[in-house]
Design a protein that fits this description.
Blueprint lengths: L3 H7 L11 H15 L3 H10 L4 H11 L5 E5 L2 E7 L25 H10 L6 E3 L18 E5 L3 H7 L2 H5 L4 H7 L16 E8 L5 E9 L12 E9 L7 E9 L1 H4 L5 E7 L8 E2 L7 E2 L20 E10 L6 E5 L4 E6 L13 E9 L26 E10 L4 E2 L4 E5 L6 E7 L4 E7 L9
Parallel strand pairs: 3-12
Antiparallel strand pairs: 1-2, 2-4, 5-15, 5-18, 6-12, 6-16, 7-8, 7-15, 8-9, 9-10, 11-14, 12-13, 13-14, 16-17, 16-20, 19-20
Length: about 450
Amino acid sequence: MGCLHPRNRRFSSSSSFVPLPLFLVFFLAIFLEKSVGVSVSEYSKYKQASSLTIESIQKYLAKINKPAVMSIESPDGIIDCVDKWKQPAFDHPLLKNHKLQLVPPEIPRAWKTKLDKMKQENTNISSVASSWQLWHQNGTRCPQGTVPILRVTEEDVLRAGSVHDFQRKPQKAALAALNPSVSVSPTDTDSDLPHEYATIETTPGYTLYGAAAAINLWNPQVDDEAEMSISQIWLSAGFEESTQNTIEAGWMVYPRMFGDSNTHFFVFWTADGYQSTGCYNLLCPGFVQVDENIIVGASISPYSTISGQQTETIINIWKDRGTGDWWLVYGPDSIKVGFWPASLFTTLREGATSAQWGGEVTNTNPYGGHTSTQMGSGHFAEEGIGKASYFRDLTMLESNFAVTLPTETALDITNANCYNLDISFSPDFMGLHFFYGGPGLNDNCP
C-alpha cells in the first residue's frame, strides 16, 4: 500500500503529459506487471487515482483510523482495538459531549421475551452464535475497554473513487463514473437510481420504537464490483428527501467497499435522505460501538446452502426510552453491538414512522442488459425454504413498548420477473414471514 502515493504523483495532473503510441502503453503495462508486480488492472486503478486528491484521502485515513491499543490480522484485513472513548463516533460535532453508557440499557421485557422466542430452531435451521465472524477463528480478541474496528486503507477508498462514495450508498452519478454503461440525465431523481427492491413496508400511523426479524444468511453472486446485494431492516422517519432519516442493519455483498465477495454484517444511517450525512459502519462519525467481540463491516460465516443446512441470525433495533438512542442487538445471544445517538437525527429523534424488511440490489445494466446480481439466495420466493431466502417472525415495538406484528403493510417489488417476494403467516416459529429474492437476469428479465 505504501507504494501507491509515489505512483500517483507520477501520473498526477500537474505533471507534463506526452501521448504515447498504443503499443508503447501496452508494453509499459506488461513491463510493470513483470518487473514490479503491478497488474494491468492495478495500473488502471493508479491511473484513475491521478484525478483524485490523494492528500484528501490520506487526511481522511489519518482521521478515521484511530490509534490502536493492539492490532489483529484477520481475513478481513487489519483490526485495530481502539479505546471506546476514542472511536470515530466522538469526532461528530453533535457527539462531542455525548456520554457513553458503560452499561447498556436493559432490553424492554416484552421485547426480550419476543426475542427469546425467536431463537426457536427446527432441524433445518442453525442460528449463528458468537462464532459467526471470520476474525474469531484465530481466537484473539480485543482487550476490555476497547472496540474492534477494521482499519481503512488507501486501496479501500480508491476502489470507490472518492471518500464520499466510499462512505455512502451508490448514487447514479458515482456509478456512472465507475461504469460507462450507466447513463446520467440532468433530470435524474432518486427514483432514477439503479436500485431494485423486494421488500415489505409498514407505515402504521403511530410511532415505532423498534423492529426485528430473523434473517436467512446467504452469499449471493454479484455481477459487477460496483453493484451490491443487501438484505436488511430499515427504520425511517420523514417523507421529504431532505428530512428523511433512516437507520439500517443487515448483511450485504459489496466488492467495491470490502474488496471481496464475502457476506458482511453492516450498519448504515442518514439524516438527510442519503445526500451528505451518514455512512456505512464506522466509516464516518456517528454509530457508537460498545461490544468488544463484534465488528461492524466484518465477514459473516457460515452461509446457508441450497437444499441443505440453513443459517440465520436475529437483528433487533430498538429505541431506549431514557436516552432516545437507537440500539442494535445482533444474534440469538442478543449481543448489544452499539447505538445510533438520538442527536444525529431530526425526524427520527422522536421515533420511526415506518419499518421495512427485505432485499435490495444495485443494477448498473452491465453489458446493456439487466444485471445477474442475485438477491437473497438467487432463487425466487415461490421455491420456498431451502432454496429461497427468508425473513421470519417480523416484529415491531410501539412507543409504549407493546410488541406487535406489522400492520398496514405494502409490498415494494421493483420488477417481479427479476426479484420477487411472497408473504405469509404460520403459527409455528416462522410467524409472519416472507420468502424473497431472485437471479436477476433471466429469460423474463432481459
